[in-house]
Automatic annotation (TrEMBL), chain A:
<feature type="transmembrane region" description="Helical">
    <location>
        <begin position="247"/>
        <end position="276"/>
    </location>
</feature>
<comment type="similarity">
    <text>Belongs to the binding-protein-dependent transport system permease family. FecCD subfamily.</text>
</comment>
<feature type="transmembrane region" description="Helical">
    <location>
        <begin position="315"/>
        <end position="335"/>
    </location>
</feature>
<dbReference type="InterPro" id="IPR000522">
    <property type="entry name" value="ABC_transptr_permease_BtuC"/>
</dbReference>
<keyword id="KW-1133">Transmembrane helix</keyword>
<protein>
    <submittedName>
        <fullName>Iron ABC transporter permease</fullName>
    </submittedName>
</protein>
<keyword id="KW-0813">Transport</keyword>
Automatic annotation (TrEMBL), chain B:
<keyword id="KW-0067">ATP-binding</keyword>
<keyword id="KW-0813">Transport</keyword>
<dbReference type="InterPro" id="IPR003593">
    <property type="entry name" value="AAA+_ATPase"/>
</dbReference>
<keyword id="KW-0547">Nucleotide-binding</keyword>
<comment type="function">
    <text>Part of the ABC transporter complex HmuTUV involved in hemin import. Responsible for energy coupling to the transport system.</text>
</comment>
<dbReference type="InterPro" id="IPR027417">
    <property type="entry name" value="P-loop_NTPase"/>
</dbReference>
<protein>
    <submittedName>
        <fullName>Heme ABC transporter ATP-binding protein</fullName>
    </submittedName>
</protein>
From TrEMBL, chain C:
<dbReference type="InterPro" id="IPR050902">
    <property type="entry name" value="ABC_Transporter_SBP"/>
</dbReference>
<dbReference type="InterPro" id="IPR002491">
    <property type="entry name" value="ABC_transptr_periplasmic_BD"/>
</dbReference>
<feature type="domain" description="Fe/B12 periplasmic-binding">
    <location>
        <begin position="32"/>
        <end position="289"/>
    </location>
</feature>
<dbReference type="Pfam" id="PF01497">
    <property type="entry name" value="Peripla_BP_2"/>
</dbReference>
<protein>
    <submittedName>
        <fullName>ABC transporter substrate-binding protein</fullName>
    </submittedName>
</protein>
Amino acid sequence: MKPINNRITGLALLALLLCTALLSAKLGAVPISLQEIKNAFMHLINGNEIIELNERIFLQIRLPRVLMGIFVGAALAVGGVLTQALFRNPIVEPGLIGTSSGAAFGAALYFVLGATFGSNWGEWTLPIAACIGGTVATVMVLFLAQSKNDHRRGVASLLLSGIAINALFLSGVGFLSYIARDPQARSITFWNLGTLSGSYWEALYIVLSVTSICIWFSLRLAKQLNALMLGEQEAQLLGINIPQLKLMVLCLNVIMVAVSTAFVGVIGFVGLIVPHFLRMIQGADNRFLLWGGALLGAWVLTASDLLARLLLAPAELPIGIVTSLIGVPVFIILLKRTNYLF
Amino acid sequence: MISLENLTYHIKGKHLLESVSLAFEKGKMHIILGPNGAGKSTLIRLISGELKPSAGTIRYNDMPLHGISVKEQALFRAVLSQNLEVSFPLRVHEVVLMGRYPHFVGSPRAIDHEICEKSIHLFDLDELKNRNYLTLSGGEKQRVQFARVFAQIWEPIDGKPRVLLLDEPLTFLDLYYQYHLMKTIKTFMASNPDLTVIGVVHDIIIAAKFADQVVLMHQSKTFAQGPTHAVLNPENIHTVFKIMVEDQFIVK
Amino acid sequence: MKNSTLLLLISLVASSCGRFGNTDEKTDSQERIVCISKQYAEIIYALGAQKEVVAVDLSSTYPPEIKALPTIGYHRALSTETILAMKPSLILHDNNIGPEHVVTQLKELQIPMKTFGNYTPTIAGTDSLIREMGHYFGKEKQADSLCVKLHKEAQEAFAHSKHYTQTPKVLIIHFGRASNIYLVMTKNSTAAKLIEWAGGEMAVDAEKGMKQLSPEVVAAANPDIILLTDFGYDRLNDGKEIDKLPGISSTKAYKNNQIYRIEEHDLVYTGPRTGENVLRIQELIHPDETH
C-alpha cells in the first residue's frame, strides 16, 4: 500500500481539530451562537466591557475549557509517544508507569496539607507539587522494575511495578480525601475523576506554556527515539547518548503529564490509544508520531469533553469516564492484533 | 589502522578474552574465525565500544577508543549486529535512514536521502522501500540492516578511517545472498580504499574466498593471524576446529 | 477505589436524570432563582415565594411539589454550565456548595449570589432565618405565622420532653446521596439537636457531624432505637434487609423491632416544620410515653 503523506494526514487532523474545537465552543448546557462568539472577540479586541452573559460565559468558561482540552490532550498523547518509544513497548503509557497517580497524589497533598508546608509559588505551586509527586512515583516504578538485561522480563516487571505503585498512590489520594476537611475534600474527589470544567485562564497559561515547550523539546528527540527502536545497544552505535536520552524523555514526560494532571485530574487512555492508532495508519516514525500525536490527542480530548458535556446535558460527566468508554474497546481491539500492518 | 593491545575481558570470573593483541590494516577485509565460545563476538563488541575491556587498549589511528565520544564514533564506524529486531512498525526506507542519523541535525538533508537511495539500490531493496519492516522475511530484514550500516559509512570522513564491523551478518541469508553480499562488500571496498572491514563468520569457505586477513581464535586467545592462505592450513584448522581437511583450501 | 467512585457517580447522575429533564415554565420577566440549599428551598415554599425559583439542587426534596422543578445536581458536585443553563438571575446558597472552582467561575461571571444569615440550628436561629427570608421576599406576614407555629409546636415538644422518664439512645443511619455509603450522624449534627429536643440521646459522638459506619461503631453504641433516612431505608427493601448491615442485629433496637424510617428533610436542617418534626420523632422514640 502506498503510504499516505504525513503532511496530508497532519492537515486532515488539524482541520478536524479546528472544526471540533469550534463545535465544542458553541455547544453545551448553554448554547452559544457564532454571532455571540464573534461579538465576544470584537469586545475583547476593542477592550469594551462585555455585557451579554453568553459572551462572558464564552470568554471566561467555554474558551479556556476548549483550549485546555487541546493542550492537555496534546500533552497526554505526546507523553504516551515518549514513554512507548522509551520502553519500546506499545502498551506503556504515563498512567501505567505511575506518573499520573503520583502527580495526583502530589497535587492532593498540596490541597490538604499545603498550608502546613508554608511554601507558596502562586499559581505554580500546584503543578510543582504534582511534578514532584509524578517524579517520585515514576522513579519508584523504574527502580522496582530494574532487572538484569532481560528485556522481556523488564517490561513485565515494569507493568507490575506500575500497578503496585499506582495502587499505592491512588490509596494515598483516597486517604487524603478521607482526612481532609470538607471544602478540600470536595476538590479532591471531583478533580480525581478528571474534568476540564474547572479550567481558567491562569491555569491554561501554565499548561499551554509547559506543554508547548515540552513538545518542542520532544520533537528534537524524534530521531534518537527512532534509533532506540533498534535497541539501546544499536542506538548507542548510532551515536546516541542513551542515559542522557532516557533522562530527558522521562523528565519531559513527567513534567507534561504532571502539570496537566494538576489542573484537570487523572485522564486515562489518551496516551495509550493515540500513538497506537497513529502508528497503525502511518507507521512508527517518531518524527511524525510526536506532532501527529499532539494533534490527534488534542482532538480526542476536545471531542471527549464535548461528549461529556452533551451526553447528559445539562448535567456533566467527568471526562475520564468518556475517555475510558472510548479507550477501553479501542485498546482491546488493538491488543488482539498480533502484528502491525499498514 | 586499528590496533589492539593486550585486550582482556572477563565477567563474573569467566575469561572471555585473554590478552589479545592485533592490528587491522586499512582497506582490507579481516575475518575472525573460530569455534563457538572462542571469543569472536566478544572481540567485535569490544572493538565497537559496546563492551568496556577489563584491561588493554583499543586504538583507532593512534587515538584510544575511550577518548572518542559515542557521537563521533558513529560518524565513521558502523556495526551490524546479530538478531536485530525493531519494536514498532517502520517502513524500510525509514530504517535505512537511521544510518544517516549521526550525520544530520534535525531534518535529513538532500545528500542523506540520496545516500539512502543508493544504499537501498546496492542491496537490491528498491521494491521493498515502502514495506513495513516487521512484515519482511529474515533474509530481507538482514539486507535492510546492511543497507542501514552502509548508509552510515557511505562517505569518507576527514581524517578518520572508516570501519565496518560485522557480527555474523550472513545468518539468515540463503547461499545466493551470502555470496552476493560478500561480493557487494568487496566491490564497495574497492572504490572506498580507506574502509576497514572486520567480520565474524562461521563459514570457513566464505572466509577463504573473501578474506584478505584471517584471525583464528581458540579458547579466548588468538591462535593464528595473518594472510588468509597462511592461516588456513590443515594443521591450524585441525587444532582449532577438530576436523581434518583433506585438500588445501583453494584461495584465490 | 477510583472505579467504584466512577460507577457510583454514573449511577448518581443517571438516577438524577429524571429531574434534570424537568422543564421550567417561568417567563423571563421575573427574577430567576437557582436555590442550592434544602433549608432555603423549604422556607421559600413555606413562605409562598416559590414562583421565582427555576431550579434547585438534588437534595431539596420538601415540599413534594418541589420535585417538579429541574435540578442542577448534587450541591457539592456542581457544574457551572448546568447552573448557567437555567439562566439564573440569582443563586441562593448556604455556603455548602462545591467544587471550589465552580464558585470561582460563578463569581467571575458576576452572577448574583446570596447567602442569608448564618444562624445556629436552634428554634431562635430558625426564627431569625425565616424572618430574614420573609423580609427579603416581602412575605413578612407569612414569616410571622410560620414562626408562631414553629414556637408553639416546639414549646409543646419541650413540655413533653420534661415528663419523659427515659432518654433512649438513638442511632441515625444516613445514606449519602453523593457517595452511596452509609454514615451515622453524631452528637455534632443538626439531627442531634432534634433528637435532644425530642428527649433522646445520640448514640455516637465524633468531631464531625457524620461518621462512616463501622459495624463496631454500631455494636458498641447499642442503640435503643435506629432511624434510617428515607433513601437508605427504601434501598434496604423498605427496611426489611436492615439486618444485612453488619452489627445491626445485635442491637437492642433490632431485638425490640424499633427501627423506623424518617425523611432526610425532616431531620438534617431546621425550618418551619422543626417543631412538628420533633413531635413526630417523639412518637417514634417514646412510643410508651406519648399520648
